[in-house]
Amino acid sequence: MLLVLAAAATCIYFKNRSYISALQSLASEGITTANYNELPEIIKKLPITKKVFSTENYPALYGDDKVAKISRINGSASVALSFKSHSPDPEKRSSVVYFNLNSETNMAGMFLFTSVEVRGGIVGQGHQGSRVFLELHDANGKAMYGPHIRIPQEGKKIHIVMRPTVSEPMPTGSFQNNFDLTRVVKIGLRFALGNSVNSFPANGRLYIEDILAITNTELIASLLPKPDNRRVTQDTINLTYQYRKLKWKTEKKNFFVGINYPWHYYGMDVGQNPYGQPENAGWSANQEKLIADFEMFKESGIDIVRIYIFFDLRTGLTYQDGKLLAFDKYVWRDIESIFVAAHKTDMKIIPVLFDFGVADGQGKDNGSGEHPELLFFQDKHNFLAYLMRSTLQAMNAWNEKYGEPVFAVELMNEPENMAMLIIPGYFEALKNWLKDLINIIHNETSFKVTLGSYSIVDMQKWWKDLDIDAWQFHFYRYMAAEHEQNPIDLRREKVDLSGPVFAGEYEPEDIVKNLKALKENGYGGIIFWAWNTNDGFKLESSERFKEISDWILNEKSPKNKTGKEAK
What's the whole-model pTM score? Predict the structure, then answer.
């Protein structure tokens, strides 16, 4: 998950007048331009920057039982870490060093910035590698956790940024209820051991540079491109949609179990191959595999498949004279192929229209998608009113043609984690964009709408004013240590939302325990992450998938038709 540093972007913007190149990743893959290495020096020279912690004061740092030694080496605070044994407990797989502020401090309206280097056998690999992040603690003992930055490789310096706020989402971050941003007394830097680290004892070092505070976020925001907050659609009374809502309330609601089958090749399943040959590498060219996998899911008892469509828009778009013209010739073929597979196998699907990576700050120079102009600027009008409207109309026609396989259409995966949201004002623009997309769906199709919220806390906190028909949250074990609510302990009636609520992504651990808990707590269903990903959670040909299948088939067996609980 990638973040962007608006303050540094501003500086670079003044240097080269290119906000796209300035809004680069501060996380997993790093920036492929020299700008990344320039960030610390640029920030130090800003007149609105002050030093919150100097490494010269390293003796003031203190840590938990995994901190073996704290010293100063080559101008950095060196923290030796030692993890003695493997444990799935997120608390035991993390370590933190703190320093106390001289007095209660108001952190509102700031960016916090530091650089960290990690060495030793604690880095991990891939998406499930280790992460570092800043955290704040207030005078009442409440905590705020900053964006979780993945460590791409040993010895690579990474920059960590945090915009403390309780009024907007913090990408991959969170805060506890009633956290007082005006009374911060302690700052910490936490290291979370990745799931891919499995050799113990695991020892390594953090090298932490000065922690800086850029003290005027509004000034930074005023110097960056302002998002276009104008609506593309109008909010009107839709009687047809209101009738559908009444009808949906009468539907029988059985607990469902699904699987995330997000992609065959990330970012190129729908649309022309962005990397060359073969030109058509999407679902229409892999129809047989799609059908075969759906058939296997059906035989295993799976009820619903969650599958991505446009990802980060690295492909699928055609331009003429620099202007967005249409989707390419493969887009509709590839999307229809998903409907065909669902029809042939009698499988329900949740098509995920977009991933937050469409504006993740990663930039296009590493082959990923990056289209903030389609969400936040003038181009959004053409994109929504013409390209998306016609595509959703086509999807609705395919839904009718192929036996109505769509459970719900998902607007976006984890929009809270979109890196652009670190810039003040962009969250409001994103909500307006989502409202327009919802209006198009409700007016042009018969689909239910869902949104893949990052967590059960974020789902309730940020999206209540959207017309969501089926509420969706995601849950991974580390969230239990940071969030005050989790679906294992929280009953559905305690969720402050009306309508169905289900888990759209769920870490595939303690399978039976989690299935029983979510069913007993009254949730609509659970969709495990994920069939075919290489992030440490891959379910393909695993014992975990067999455990899921066995539970489902036992639940659906004739002896359990009376409601007898599966073992």
Answer: 0.90
